[in-house]
Amino acid sequence: MPDLPDALVLARIQFAFTVSFHFLFPAITIGLASYLAVLEALWLRTGKGVYMDLFKYWVKIFALIFAMGVVSGIVMSYQFGTNWAVFSDRAGPIIGPLMAYEVLTAFFLEAGFLGVMLFGMNRVGKGLHFTATLMVAFGTFVSAFWILSVNSWMQTPTGFATNAVGQFIPAGSWLDIIFNPSFPYRLAHTVSAAYLTTAFIVGGVGAWHLLRNHETPQARTMFSMAMWMAAIVAPLQIVIGDMHGLNTLEHQPAKVMAMEGHFDSHPEGAPLILFGIPNSAESRVDHAIEIPKLSSLILKHDLDAPLAGLDTIPPENRPPVGIVFWSFRVMVGLGFLMAGLGVLSLLARWRGKLFEWRGLHRFALVMGPSGLVAVLAGWITTEVGRQPWTVYGLMRTAESASPLAAPAVAASLIAFVVIYFLVFGAGVLYILKLMSKPPEPHEPAPPRTPVRTAGITPAAALTAGANTGAAE
């Protein structure tokens, strides 16, 4: 019988599973909330019903995805106490306040205005409803701000000291903790990735309806808006990603070495390895397809610039090369495909064939889920590339886990997998069902909900009583 995974491995698998599942939902809602705000702003400015039809179409999908994101996020917070209690104890004085700020600002902001945005279209004025939509969109950004600040501090910790019991505590200004060296780059890269994720989902849905000859103004408008985002944001994301990579090279060189597959140092210019099979046991990349010195040009802007390799890193401090190597290539490859679709859409628009070019529509349909795959690949690159550290260079993952037995962690992992696929699988299928229906003129709004828990308002009760008395 092969050896069964120990508790640490199972805890890592559990957190990887839940965070990957959760991350998909905010990746959509961050961009979709802003898209809804743009649609409502265009409706208010132009008075064109097509924008309100699209707003009502996508707001129902947003509500479902938002709810699934909240539920899946709550589960993750419990794991800090169950599976990662040592990490929570040592890093709590830093991580705890930042997570609390996220709840007190972003979550309360979203919760306070979400109901108005979803159900208040016919109950409040246009200005107040638009304000609610803007606040929900702003709340999703603020949430990303705090969560990414926490993660970035774990990647590039600054502004802290260690007390007598080994806890990380603030030292000086909280601004040094919040705006740590990698945070601005990670925030820009992640938020723009969320916008691209939404754009390609919207574009894929629009392409689906155009291919099915649902060539309504609503389908045309959503496809056109999505292609503008692809054409503008995808090339910009490549530039932001390059800047983020240079920052990572400065603060986490081992991660970049794993991404590039550089087991050996290159004193006179490093090649760019396009593809290959990383062989960590032999410290080489088998069957490598590479371009000489191009990695030095990208990372150092000099063909002959020396680049250190993993041979300069102690073996116990090296990240898993194979996973990081391939996840990075999936992310980059999809990024260039996104930019290619954006360029093709510009060509089609210039030729007046944006809504007639079937090949473009098929390409957009296939690329619909590409943003979700890309953000997962990027997240895997970031998190696995940080290993074997929880707090980079200071606290190892092996030191962070709770003293649990493997069967206990395995039982909760199995429960998570079964429940997640049943509950969230049903939710995703329902969302796909909504997307399969084309947006229509005078798209119905979300159903009206009762103001009171009892299901009836006092005014409605009085009216019902008066009507009953009149009937008698």
TrEMBL record:
Pfam families: Cyt_bd_oxida_I (PF01654)
Membrane topology term: Multi-pass membrane protein
BP GO annotations: aerobic electron transport chain
One Gene Ontology cellular component: plasma membrane
Membrane-spanning segments: 20-45, 57-78, 98-120, 127-148, 193-211, 223-240, 323-348, 360-380, 404-432
Localization (cell): Cell inner membrane; Cell membrane
InterPro entries xrefs: Cyt-d_ubiquinol_oxidase_su_1
Gene Ontology MF terms: electron transfer activity; heme binding; metal ion binding; oxidoreductase activity, acting on diphenols and related substances as donors, oxygen as acceptor
Keywords tagged on the record: Cell membrane, Electron transport, Heme, Iron, Membrane, Metal-binding, Transmembrane, Transmembrane helix, Transport
Family from the record: Belongs to the cytochrome ubiquinol oxidase subunit 1 family.
PANTHER family tied to this protein: CYTOCHROME BD MENAQUINOL OXIDASE SUBUNIT I-RELATED, CYTOCHROME D UBIQUINOL OXIDASE
Name recorded for this polypeptide: Cytochrome ubiquinol oxidase subunit I
